[in-house]
Amino acid sequence: MQQNNSTKKAQDSKLHFLDYWRIIRIRKTVILAVFLLVVLTTTVVTLLLKPTFSSTVRIAIEKDNSDIAPLLGIQASTPYDPYFIQTEFEKIQSKKVLHKVIAKLGLNQVWAERYNADTLTTNETYLILQKLIQIEQFRNTSIIEISAYSEDRDEAAIIANEIATQYQESRLESQRTMSLKGIEALDLQLEQQNEEVIEAQALVDSLKMELGISDIYSPEGSGIAQGIESQSVLKLENERTTALAAYVRYKTLFEKLSVLSREDLRKAALTAVPNDINLSRLFNEYDMTAQKVATTKAVYGPEHSEMQRLLDLKTELSEQIETRLDGILIGLQTQLNAAKAQVESLEAVVENAKSNDATNTAAYRPYFQAKRKLENLQKIKDMIFVRKLQETVDASLPTTAIVEIYDPAEPSVRPVRPNIALNVALGVLVGLVVGVGLAFFIEYLDTSVKTIDDVEQALGAPVLGVIPQNVGSLLEEGPDSPHAEAYRVLRTNILFSRKSDEARTMTVVSGGAGEGKSTTIFNLSAIFAQNNSKVLVVDSDLRRPSLHKIVGVSNAKGLTDYLMDTAKMEDVIQTTNVPTLDFLPSGKLPSSSMGILNSVQMKNFIQEVKSRYDYVFFDSPPIMGVSDASVLASEVDMAILVIQYRKYPQAMTVRAKQMVEKVGGNLLGVVLNNINISQDSYYYYYSGYYYDYYSKSDDAVDSEKASKKNGGSKTSKSSGRQELDLKKKF
User: Fold this and answer.
1) Distance CA 240, CA 243 (A)
2) How many domains is the chain built from?
């Protein structure tokens, strides 16, 4: 199912394209006329235009930075600006720059003479100059191309270069002006700050003398100043802390040693008092004596004099150690008491000093606040001074890099406008577009019948046949004429479309005049007659008869004479050279018999001829203008609506169909007439192949006849024509 849908869509698309191509082929005259008009107009106007020359200068622009590093070595950082280049474009085209160019080059006088004006104001010249310059950015770089256009090649180069120069000077002047204004503002701020520093210094000196303050730091120093009282408190607090630490150390040592036994005290003494040289010496001598006692006892025995001496010495050293240990304990006790007394004394002094310092701090607060303010003002003054120095030095640095002219403009060799090749190419393109667009617009406005689909959609009736253009009488063209095949197709469709075999009378109607209904009815009857059917053609267009001209007979007597009983049927019906084809002219229509077709005689006539002939064909006037066509459509068995290709609006055709249906006529279908098969490929598939086939057949017949003629044979008849042999039927 999807595949079928895809195929259908593809076919619809193809047909849609073919419809476009058909419109182009049909309207090719309009397209060609518009195309030639546009191209010729463009070419003539291009050749008449004066040549215009162009010169371009290329400049590189940067943001406002100096050529070398500034005083402090840091360029002022500027944020990214995506509109920087566009902003500079506008500055280049501004009055500030272009007015200077106008004044420098004297363009007011030059262009006043060129344009035959008495005088030109600067604003008028500015408007002209603005239209003659073009500014572009070169390939996403900071390089700008300034192009100037003029009828004088030298003037174009001069204007472009002068614009670049004036823009460069404008940027440099703007930067210098900004720097000088900034330095002036810094000078003013520095002067004001210096006055504030002087006032603050005078206040500090006054408070210092008034309060008798002696600062640790000089008045010009930085930081928070402190008085002697505060320093004394800090010093006493440090001494108290040191004394308290010594007291705690003595107390801890004394408490540990006083609770030890004598034996443990002897062991811990050296560790507790490592700096006591005498105690250390006594312990060393005691240990050496104890070693000698042990050695001597093994040699001499306990009663020996040497042994006794050593024992006495050991006892004496032990007593000295005990005495020394007692002295150490007493000394520790004394130091502990002294440290405690010192701590207590210092605590009293510190408390007194703190009280005095708190009192002095409250009294000295205005001084210290004034001094802090002085230091802040001094810092601000120094910062302003450094900034002024930096700006002064930076302002003197060269800044030519912000606008640099790389490629000066030079006079061009060839004009840039008009571009003949480009203009003609655009003229060709525009001509084609306008021509095709106009063709489609005309086609859109054309509401006439153009395709079979138009007929079937608008009328809801089938198309029975498509008749080519320039069709004449088939009796003259012969049965082998390529046009005859179109009528054979029509005959076949009629025979298959009629509902009954008894339907053998037919009329052809049309909405307007000149749609080919008379030719259609006569040729259709000829096709039926050539098929061995007995056929009668009746010219029932009483007001403007034309079939007698096609047949080539007189219209003196005919249908009107029979209906008015002034002649018999045998007197008015005539034969043709086709044995089965008879013709009944319309005859002369008296003014007193305008509605004769809507009579009993006409109905009886139709029944009479229907009994004598296999098929009877009635020609009729246009159905929109005369009532006779409606009467015929209601009285005959079948009716066919002839529509001429691209002649009348569809609304008229729809109205003609409705009129046939209102009178009860049996409308079989529609015949499209006067189709240009060779021009409109849409209809080629209906009749084009027959044209090709019969054209080749005719060529072969003509060649054969020419060959016979060259051989001496003669014929009295022309190729493809039959002479009419008209006589009365009865």
Assistant:
1) 5
2) 2
